[in-house]
Amino acid sequence: MNNAGGYFVSVVIPVFNEEESLPELYSKLTAMLERTAAGHELIFVDDGSTDRSPGIVLSLRERDRRVKLISFNRNYGKSPALSEGFKAARGDVVVTIDADLQDNPDEIPGMIRKLDEGYDLISGWKASRKDPFTKTFPSKVFNFISSMVTGIKLHDINCGLKVYRREVVKRINVYGELHRVIPVLAGWEGFRIGEKSVTHSHRRYGKSKYGMSRFLNGIFDLATVMFITRRSTTPMHFFGRMAFGFLAIGGAINLYFLFQWIVGRGLHVRPLMVVGLVMIVIAIQIFSIGLLAEMFSAGSERTFSYREYRIED
Question: What is d(CA 189, CA 192) in angstroms, rounded to the nearest whole number?
Fold first, then answer.
């Protein structure tokens, strides 16, 4: 049965210079949702487009009041666009899809049905991706690293096609460029994450807005999320381990030279000895940072007096 489970569906669509694909995307989404959903809205978030994208969405809105437009005065990025779209979404289920038509809207009902298997977020998996090697290879590396570091086993963590229960998008905080690691944010909040294989098409209009630099940005974003989610309440666990590593290596180096001096072989300043001393100094500095972070964390807990936890119904 090809339906969306009787849900009211909000579709959030970040837009940046996609004037050619918008009418076709609207037609495909509308046709699919009218067949499968109890009701729907399409939320286009224009991220400072310099082409006719905002005007096209406004023309769609004139004939279909289910179309919404949020316009930024300049290009802020995909994460702020998603964040504003999530705030505006009224649906029981929220869908995100890129505006470039590389993801097929007809995959959405199957992804929504998969939510009913006990998941809160379903991420698309472009098993046969129609992108150049300069995009697919860094993506595979990033997905592998993400899976190992976070424990969230997804083949395509950054796929733009995702389906969420309403509670997920109202709970997570997407800012900066953290749209790449939304499943990690959701997983940390205790939501259940799944994935579904989806079809992927070649880009027919415009050009990609992302280059090789997004690989490094993704790694930095992943490190940020891991630190924020896992270390924010116990920073000394993070800094302490790092300090211990530097101290162990530096201490071992200098113990070797101390042994040389004790057995009478003479003590001369050597580059390796200096390296050992520098590593011990670094260890002390990192440990001090950990103490300061721990004091700040404790002060924050007292200031706010409580931490907000997600409770199962």
Answer: 9
User: If pLDDT is split at 50, 70 and 90, which confidence band does 152 have?
Assistant: confident
CA–CA distance, 22 with 60 (Å, rounded to integer):
9
Dihedral, CA of residue 165, residue 167, residue 168 and residue 170, to nearest 10: 130
Both structure tokens of 96: 């995100």
Task: Using alpha carbons, list the distances in angstroms from residue 213 to 50, 139, 194, 210.
Answer: 22, 12, 28, 8
Instruction: Tell me the backbone φ, ψ of residue 168, rounded to 5 degrees.
Output: -65, -50
pTM of the model: 0.71
Burial class (CB in 10 A: 0-12, 13-18, 19+), 2: exposed
Q: What are the distances in angstroms from CA 121 to CA 52, 88, 178, 211?
A: 33, 18, 16, 27
Alpha helices in the chain (DSSP H): 22-36, 53-63, 78-88, 108-115, 133-150, 166-171, 182-188, 213-231, 235-262, 271-304
Residues 83-133: pLDDT tens digits?
999 999 999 999 999 999 999 999 999 999 999 999 999 999 987 766 665
Cβ atoms 166, 93 nearer than 8 A: yes
For the segment 259-289, what is each residue's pLDDT rounded down to a tens digit? 888 887 766 767 888 888 999 999 999 889 8
